[in-house]
Design a protein that fits this description.
The chain is mainly α. Helix content is 91%, strand content 0%. The protein starts with a helix and ends with a helix.
Amino acid sequence: MKDLESLRKELAELAKQTEQEDLKRELESLIQQILKHRDYCPF
């Protein structure tokens, strides 16, 4: 259990470091997709 707990903590730290950049990229690509779809869709 201790191994899993420490692994979870490490993953949480890594997520904090990486998720901001990844989230930015994901949001930007999502926004681009939405904007493209808005050109074709009425809603």
